[in-house]
Amino acid sequence: MYAKFRRHRSAVLEIPSNKHPCHANILALGALLSAVQAGLYPGYGHAVSSQSIIRHDAGYPALSYAAPYAGYYGAAPAHYGGHHEYAYPKYNFAYSVADPHTGDNKSQHESRDGDAVHGQYSLVQPDGSVRTVDYSADAHNGFNAVVHNSAPLVHAAPAYYHY
Asked: Which residues of 136-156 are buried (b: 16+ CB within 10 A; e: fewer)?
């Protein structure tokens, strides 16, 4: 059996009535499952008010299971005015980095004896030149730095980034 539908006057569209598309079955099954499960999900609950509520409930006696009050024991008294230790400031340190993968080349060394600090650091600039800074600091002269730049011996290779 065929159902005939006329579209405008010239075309006749014939659809077999014994064949149903598969999507209609899936749609009907989904609607049925939705109707069955509709009652199983909880709702949104009661509304929440932002107004304050004054209640006059009857009071209940407080139950206490604690031991009786035994008095207050404060912290131990602090001892102020103790003596401060003074360590004479004296140190030496140095480090150096030479990483061929990133091209990071730098070094530093510093020494301190009392209030006088002397040191030097150097690094390789992106153009291949080496910058060296000699510095010193003391209570009489303050901080002084002398910068030396050397010409590049070879041109720096371009850095390739791998992400």
From this structure: eeeeeeeeeeeeeeeeeeeee
Tell me which residues of the chain have a pLDDT lower than 70: 1-21, 39-49, 56, 58-74, 76-82, 153-159, 163
Indicate the pTM of the whole model: 0.43
The pLDDT assigned to 23 comes to: 72
Token pair listed for 32:
């049925």
CA pair distance 44, 13, nearest whole angstrom? 49
- Could you state, in order of their start, the residue ranges of all structural domains in the chain? 2-37, 90-150
Which positions ≥6 away from 144 have C-beta within 8 Å? 135, 136, 137
Rounded to whole angstroms, the Cα distance separating 159 from 140 reads: 45
Question: Cβ distance 103 to 156 under 8 Å?
Answer: yes
Q: How far is CA 75 from the centre of its chain?
A: 40
Q: Is 30 helix (H, G, I), strand (E, B) or coil?
A: helix
**Which whole-number Å values give the CA distances from 136 to 29, 131, 133, in the listed order?**
85, 17, 10
